[in-house]
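Quick note —
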Amino acid sequence: MGSPHAKPQDQPPSAPPQTGAASDAVAEPLVKIVELQTIPMPNGILGVAEVSKHIGFPVHRAYYIRDVPTGEGRGSHGHRALRQCFLCLRGSVRLSISKAGRTETVELNRPSQAAVVPAGCWRDLSDFSHDSVIIVLASDEYDEADYIRKYDDFLRWEAGDEPVTSTPYLDLKRNSQMVAAEMELAMRRVIRSGRLIGGEEISAFETRFATYCGADHMVGLGNGLDALVIALVRRSAADRPRRSLRRPRTAPAGCGRAWD
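Predicted structure written out below.
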C-alpha cells in the first residue's frame, strides 16, 4: 500500500477529452465491476467470490484497510504487474484508476460488489466513510519492485522511457509478468483435469493457433525437436513412400526413433 499522504504532484492529471475516430470506439473499461454471488440464509448472508467466476486471477495476498481519518486517502501509486480486486465490506469508498491517459472512478458501497483492476495501472482511494472496511485481494505477494511511487515515473514507465541502468541480453520479465496470472490459472485447470497430455486445453490451443496461422489443422508437440523430426519424416515419406517409421530394437522404449 502506498503512503496515505499523497503529494499533489503525484496525483494523475485529468485525461484530456478524446476526439476523432478513437473517441467513437468503445474502450475496454479500466475497472471491471463484478457482482458477487450472494446467498441469503436464515442464519445470515453468505457472500462468495471465486477466482474463475469473479476475480479472474489467482490470489496470493489479502489485506484490509480500515479506520482511515476523515479527508485522508490511500494508494497514490502504480503497479507494474500486480492485479487487485477491491471489496468494500462496510461503508463506502471512491476508487480512481488511471492508465494510458484515461482515468475511471467508481464508488464501492455494497459488499456484494467488487472492482477488479488489471496490471499496469495507477490507483487512488479517497472519500472513505468513517465506518469503511476495505478488503483487497492481490495476484502476488508484496514486492516493492512492482510499485511505482511517483506519477511522473509511472508515465515514463508506461511510455517505456525509464532510465536504462543495465543492458540485459534478453529481458522477458515485463511481458511474462503481464500474462503470469493467466498462465497460472491455465496450469491449474490442466492439473485439475487430470489430463497432462492432450485434453480440452490443448485442443482449444491447437484450434486457435491454426486459425492464427491460417492453417486447417495444428498439432501440439512436446518440444521443438519433436516438431523437426515429424517434419523431416513427413518430407522423407513424401519423397520415398516406402519408407516406414519404426522404433530401434536395441534402444529402450522412448529413447529414440529411426527409419529405413
